[in-house]
Amino acid sequence: MSKKLLFLVGDFVEDYEVMVPFQALAAVGYEVSAVCPDKKAGDIVRTAVHDFEGDQTYTEKRGHNFTLNATFDEIDPAEFDGLVIPGGRAPEYIRLNERVLEIVRHFFAENKPVAAICHGAQVLAAAGVLDGRQCSAYPACSPDVTRAGGEYMDIPVNKAHVDGNLVTAPAWPAHPDWLNKFLQVLGAKIEL
Questions:
Q1: What pLDDT shows up at residue 50?
Q2: Which pLDDT score, from 0 to 100, does residue 1 have?
Q3: Catalytic residue among 119, 135, 141, 161
Q4: Residue 2 in this model has a pLDDT that exceeds 80
Q5: Is residue 191 part of a domain?
Q6: Residue 192 lies in a domain
Q7: The domain that contains 152 carries what CATH number?
Q8: How many CA atoms lie within 13 A of 60 on its CB side?
Q9: pLDDT at position 51, please?
Q10: Is the pTM of this model over 0.70?
Q11: Beta-carbon contacts of residue 187 (< 8 Å; ≥ 6 apart)
Q12: Annotated catalytic residue 118
């Protein structure tokens, strides 16, 4: 029986941060479900591409449509072995949904693996699960992490950080390290 992973997404989730891990984790055998508050399986969320082009912050462009494969209202977090929270603009408003926060708290209460990247830390902060924890994120989210009682880990954009069951990274350039570390926390054994 394959392990099940849950993705919490919303409109204008960062394109690479949802597409790449969703496909990569499915490719190595995980059953991956993506949900969005107020949407059902078959609905889409629009994505945004954030790029680093030398400006003071990232640039944003319209990405793809990403099709949800599960219905938010039907999700039971107890059925999932791990949680993924991509970044982009979605975290700033899905964190306003109390059920999103309850789902996140479940994964921490049960010490299940959680991977958050970029602005995904905003959801963790809103859920109140960062107190005493180390967490990386996009640098503009560092106040969210510290105000929630966490220690912001200022690491290179292509690196990830592990604190127990929590794997975090600043942005999509960290995918190789972030996914590798998340797979280790999940207990995956991939033979080449």
A1: 87
A2: 52
A3: 119
A4: no
A5: no
A6: no
A7: 3.40.50.880
A8: 10
A9: 85
A10: yes
A11: none
A12: yes
| Contact call for residues 39 and 67 (beta carbons, < 8 A) | no
Q: Which among 50, 64, 106, 118 is annotated as catalytic?
A: 118
Domain that holds residue 28: 4-186
Q: Is residue 41 part of a domain?
A: yes
Per-residue pLDDT tens over the stretch 8-56: 999 999 999 999 999 999 999 999 999 999 999 999 999 999 887 888 8
Active site residue 175: no
Q: How far from each other are the two terminal CA atoms of the chain, in whole angstroms?
A: 21
Q: What are the pLDDT digits (tens) for 87-128?
A: 999 999 999 999 999 999 999 999 999 999 999 999 999 999
Query: Which structure tokens are listed for 174?
Result: 């960290």
> For the stretch 104-117, what's the b/e string if a residue is b when 16 or more beta carbons lie within 10 angstroms of its beta carbon?
bebbbeeebbbbbb
Cα–Cα dist 106/26, whole Å: 23
Residue pair 14/64 in contact (Cβ under 8 Å)? The answer is: no
Rounded Cα gap, residues 93 and 11, in angstroms: 9
Q: Dihedral of CA 125/131/137/143: which sign?
A: positive
Q: Beta strands of 109-174 (E only): which ranges?
A: 114-117, 134-135, 151-152, 161-163, 166-169
Q: Which residue has tokens 């609905």? A: 43
Q: Evaluate whether residue 44 is within a structural domain.
A: yes
Total domains present in the chain: 1
pLDDT at 5: 98
